[in-house]
Amino acid sequence: EVQLVESGGGLVKPGGSLRLSCAASGFPFSTYSMNWVRQAPGKGLEWVSSINSRSDYIYYTDSVKGRFTVSRDNAKNSLFLQINSLRAEDTGVYYCARAQYDSSGYRRYPDYWGQGTLVTVSS
Amino acid sequence: DIQMTQSPSSLSASVGDRVTITCRASQDISNYVVWFQQRPGKAPKSLIYAASSLQSGVPSKFSGSGSGTDFTLTISSLQPEDFATYYCQQYHSYPLTFGGGTKVDLK
Q1: Closest by CA position to B36, among listed B81, B93, B79, B99
Q2: Measured between CB atoms, which of B50, B55, B97 is closest to A104?
Q3: For the segment B13-43, what is each residue's pLDDT rounded down to a tens digit?
């Protein structure tokens, strides 16, 4: 069974930092690309970042470039998101999601999601 | 960036109703669309990928169609567990983008 378990969220002051983790199990983590997606309270879903299996292709949404860093440790089946210079608008639930190839075998979509970890940025 | 315009933003329906949600992309994205269901306080769950392929384990009352810029999600017979928010997302190119969501509630 595919399992993704996020941790590391919490209450942090503006300008602070957090490191989010996602522990993966039930599938060969080292062969899958992964995503981070967030959701502000009462709002819709927003893609944050993607990383491929070997960490040589990494993408970010514009609003987090230079502040967030995605990484992974394939030996430990873990995905990370280092978030710095936090702003109030970064508040929300952060989900990790596995990226699965569709039937084209060329592009990937998020198929399994963790339950999320809440980040609250407030003074 | 590719914008995904989803409509309606909310709808009220009864058990047994047929429900259709639409999503329009700002440019041609072939069939690179996935649909999610999100129940309150829960993580999103994938329903349909590649516009019309049913995710494993998802009941066949869910179906998707479309290609290019216009896409639809249809629930053939709404059941109590289907009252939730639904999102489309394009995975044609980065940044990945979502529709604004459609909240389906009980009439």
Answers
A1: B99
A2: B50
A3: 999 999 999 999 999 999 999 999 999 999 9
